[in-house]
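ok trying this again, last paste got cut off
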Amino acid sequence: MDITHDNRSRPIVTDASRDAMRSYRVLMVAPTSFFADYGCHVRILEEARVLQRLGHRVTIVTYHSGSPVPGLDIRRTLSLPWHRDYVVGSSRHKIAFDALLGLKTFQVLAQERFDVIHAHLHEGALIGLVVSRLFGRPMVFDFQGSMTGEMLDHHFLKQQGTAYRLFRWLETRIDRRAPLILTSTANAQSLLVDEFGCPPARVRPLPDCVDTDMFRSVYTYDPADRAALRCELGIPANRKLIVYLGLLAEYQGTGLLLEAMQRVVSARQDVHLLLMGFPNLDQYAQKVESLGISDFVTLTGRIPYEQAPAYLALGDMAVAPKLSLTEGAGKLLNYMAVGLPVVAFDTPVAREYLGADGALAVRGDVGSLAANLLAHVHLACATPDQLRITGQRLRQRAVQSFSLDKAGRLIVQAYQDLLGDAPPAVAPGKI
């Protein structure tokens, strides 16, 4: 995947970075194959970019595989001879990957000086807690969902098993020992305080953010360019288009979405689903065929992140059938920034992000999801201006509440509070 290096990676001067042009040196610990085009990777990418824009210096330690990102300092671990590729989700091989990541993090800290460790996910936080004590550097834990909750979602654990109790104990210890936690949602903040017993003063919401310049309104695109891309994808011009962009998996609701699409198609044939994402492409292609909706669904596979806005702009509406109750849902913000009306399953995160303008289906209910999609298709045909106004309100909400600059200020404030003083000076050109 190729990511264009543009002006967003250049430092800019803002109120948050004007303090004598001083900056932090930040070591991000990313226990994943950064960069890939989904979920936590996007959060890590956008946080790193906005910190750079604010004049701070970011180094990311991550697994050996993943796409390079021009403009970012990425340090990678060694590979495993017996398992070179890390797939999405929980895996027993992750223990070895994380051990190598811990060694790499130790090596980087031993060779260079950083002001703060910014650890993503629980594995990163566990590594961060160890090296924070060894090197005397403060750590921020970037929490993006329950570790055991994700393992249950991926069917890696059974809730009544001994392994679940062990991992739940470990998760609780990590959460409670972290000196400061940034959560991707207010729902996650409540989860940490109410279920894991974290002190409220140590937990701060840092909602997923979206670059509203990159993900711009659908109405700013040239209609001819949109038509050409639709034609390239083989989507009939007379159909209302539902778009989905994200991981393809059962806990993401992909199977339920296809079953709902079968019901939508049985009611009317002027509708089409553009299903964009990975992995499990063959599995869901087979399901599309078995449901008899091949003529109404286009599967694209992986869409590079930098191309995502143009593909989303093809849609008349977007859908987010994610089932998880603990994870974030950054795709919602991308939909909102493009100005698309959104149908989602009713979860705390969907309510938090979409506010009053989201169409919420009963969680896990295929009939409810199909009914909401049909209602939106009807509006798109009968009263398109109504959907356009809804989309515009959602974009405005994204701009006002989920912007990159707002997220950057919150992160820097967390660093300042953790260190207890203003950012230390860093000599220009020194890394």
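PB: full thing came through this time. The radius of gyration is 22 Å.
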